[in-house]
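Narrative progress, year one. The postdoctoral researcher (J.K.) led the effort to move from monomer predictions toward full complexes, under supervision of the PI. The following entry was the first complex the group processed end to end, covering 318 residues in total.
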Amino acid sequence: MLGIEHPIIQGGMQWVGLAELASAVSNAGGLGILTGLTQPTPEDLQKEIARCREMTDKPFAVNLTILPTIKPVPYEEYAQAIVDSGVMIVETAGRNPEPFLPLFKAAGIKVIHKCTSIRHSLKAERIGCDMVSVDGFECAGHPGEDDVTNMILLPLAARRLNIPFLASGGLGDGRGLAAALAMGADGINMGTRFMATREAPIHDKVKQKMVEASELDTALIYRTLNNTARVFKNSIAEKVLEIEAQEGPTRFEDIRPLVQGTKGRELFDDGNLDKGIWSAGMIVGLIDDIPSCEELITRIVAEAEEIISQRLGQMLSA
Ligand SMILES: Cc1cc2nc3c(=O)[nH]c(=O)nc-3n(C[C@H](O)[C@H](O)[C@H](O)COP(=O)(O)O)c2cc1C
């Protein structure tokens, strides 16, 4: 459906999903995704799409994250920019993408909707999405409020969905890919693992920190605001948690200075790891190198193939 060689997708990542990373993933046979809202205007997104096209002749997608923001975002204009640029795959996330589907469908675009529950996956299927990405509790960014891990979500998705689906969250190696396929997924979507690659356009200190980190180094912030986000557990995330632990309802005003998006972006640029917050998933515990996207994808596929043909094959023949 996506015209790619390997069933490995690089999910949209704010400030990280630039042409360097997306094209590297696509050139390696996966599907790279540009993050729409990382570009300040729809015109800039069109330029970034053109830049990516110069770097790869393989398919790539654009992520459109529809979330309530402090500053209003002209989502329709971003969607139109995607269509006008001739991109054929869109990853939507954050909210029900229904208002954008007529535009995308008329242009023949395949829509992958990323969601964190079975009920939202079924809704996505019902409204005409082509594929869903099922984001388990392990994932970086917004895992929702249900706290259901992929061990449960994926088999449920396999039982209930009729459209293809990707496993997302907590994936980063061949064991994960083989397990996701075994649980019924048609491929995997990875965010955190792709941050620790040579082509990810972020400071080396961030990548090194991920290599050093364990599976215990993420934190769930904004729980008290019903908008949970899994981020790297740095001093800023801990301060946010302290504020959230105070008695009474949390006021976003008290947190806002700590979590401004611009600080997160600066952190990725200058490597000052405690400047702001940054999304990271539990898979950091399984990251111990910084390969190129080509090396990473080739290795994941080879590991998964070996597990399926050797380890699992031997169990059958034994
Ligand atoms: C730094 C970072 C930024 C992200 N930004 C977005 C975003 O803007 N929109 C979105 O839909 N998902 C975003 N995600 C989530 C990823 O697309 C993906 O669903 C998630 O990382 C999967 O979990 P994993 O990190 O365990 O692989 C982000 C993830 C990371 C690590």
